[in-house]
Amino acid sequence: MKPKSLAFRLFFSAAAWTLVVVLATAILLISLYRGVVERNFDARLNAYLTSLVASSTEDGGTKPSPPAKLGDPLFGIPFSGWYWQIKIFQKGTPTLYVSDSLLDQRLRLPSVHGAKPDENLIMRAYLDGPEGQHLRIVERQIRLGGPDARPYSYAVAGDAGEIDKDLADFTTMLVAALALLGFGLVAATWFQVQYGLRPLRAVRDGLTAIRSGKAERLEGEVPDEIRPLQRELNALIESNREIVERARTHVGNLAHALKTPLSVISNEARGKRGPLAKKVLEQADMMRTQITHHLDRARMVARIGAIGDITDVAEVLGGLERALIRIHSQRDLDIEIEVAEELKFAGERQDFEEMAGNLMDNACKWAKGQVKVRAAPAGQGRFSFTVEDDGPGLKAAERARAVKRGQRLDESKPGSGLGLSIVADLAYLYKGSFKLNPSKLGGLRAELELPQA
User: Fold this and answer.
1) 288 and 316 part of one domain
2) N or C end: fewer C-beta atoms under 10 angstroms in the chain?
3) Which of 167, 191, 216 marks a domain boundary?
């Protein structure tokens, strides 16, 4: 897909939106799961805290007694990451009891670091512990012996690495699942875009078929959204054909309307003598030449405006070869034709016949005995058509004059002098090129480059 294509825009926008949604979903799910993991971990710490409070207040005194060992053996392993601590709830007071796992270390308390108690008077925080461990700590203030008694701080801490590990495992699985989901959504988007744009590709292929002469109008079932486009394009194609046909008719009528009076003037002038009659006849012939040129050019423009013309090159050249052999039957001419297989001209048959016929006829007139014709693809949707002869050839200045309208370099040869100029005009109208160069055979090499179907 190209960056400026409609398919790329649709796919890129959908893929970008999918990526945003997947990322937002991942962030939301990780955040929610972290909350669940923290609540479960806090519930575990709260259970230990409740057990610690109960075991240190069994005698009903006004101060804590040494608690019994908690059920988890990690509280007895030095620096295991699991600790408990009991102290007077007052800054600077000594700690009363600690777990064996703390040894001579003490816990940093949430109350000291600004944590706010919840509805159960429990404070929670992430704090650094012994050996730089990352701990999750819960702390509760307890008053033994009544509301006016001295408060004591009970704290239980657990290794927050368990939370991080659980969250990391979940994140890994979530990323893998969402990546698979995202890939599936992007792939589905690509197929959706391709499927959705298929009718437009069908319209494009239909227009290509019309342009190449394989069809006359757009056919086939299309979605409701594309049907107006199909209908308007068919109307445009039909309108184009009608315009071309009207132009041909008008050109034909104009040719008849102009040539008839000129013929009358010429006939009258030939029946008279004197300088005036000679001048009238000369100017009438010049007008006929000009009219012929401009009417031929108008016919060319009208034909080239048509859609869907395609011409078989080999078929046209075969017909021209047979005609030229008959015309020049009194001369021993060797006409050699080489045409690439399935070569087609993207234009009207009459135009190609006129260009090829003029060049081949010109070569036959001047050749000593050999004419070589070749047609082959030239790349980029074009093909080259060359005609060479072994005649006298032309000098550089003569080659430039030869393509000008009405120029005849040798009055001994029949013709109006319009042949090569018509070839040049047609090549220009088809956005092609026309060159005259010396031939390896010794004569002239005429080369056309034309659109290939």
Assistant:
1) no
2) N
3) 167
Domain for residue 196, yes or no?
no
- pTM of the shown model: 0.54
Give the pairing of strands 382-389 and 444-451.
antiparallel
Q: What string of pLDDT tens digits covers the 453 residues of the chain?
A: 566 778 888 888 888 999 999 999 999 999 999 999 999 999 999 999 989 888 888 666 678 888 877 778 899 899 999 999 998 877 777 788 899 899 888 888 887 777 777 777 788 899 998 888 999 999 988 887 667 778 888 999 999 999 999 999 999 999 999 999 999 998 998 888 888 888 888 888 888 877 766 777 888 888 888 888 888 888 888 887 787 777 777 777 776 777 677 777 777 777 777 787 778 777 777 777 767 766 666 666 555 555 567 889 999 999 999 998 888 888 888 889 999 988 999 888 888 898 999 899 988 988 888 999 999 998 888 999 999 998 888 887 777 777 664 444 444 444 444 568 788 888 888 888 898 888 888 889 999 999 887
CA-to-CA separations, 59 to 66, 67, 240, in angstroms, rounded: 11, 11, 108
The pair of three-digit structure tokens given for residue 424, joined into one six-digit string: 């040049």
- Which residue has tokens 């709260």? 46
- Within this chain, do residues 276 and 369 fall inside the same structural domain, yes or no? no
- What domain range includes position 46? 7-167
Which tokens is 129 given?
């512990």
Residues 345 and 251 in one domain: no
Q: Can you give the CATH number for the domain in which 416 is found?
A: 3.30.565.10
Domain end (from 278, 304, 330): 304
320 and 262 housed in the same domain: no
Domain count, the chain: 3
Give the whole-angstrom CA distance, residue 11 versus residue 23. 18
Q: Are residues 294 and 324 in the same domain?
A: no
Cα torsion for 217, 219, 222, 227, to the nearest 10°?
Answer: 40
Q: Are residues 44 and 149 in the same domain?
A: yes
Indicate if 332 and 363 belong to the same structural domain: yes
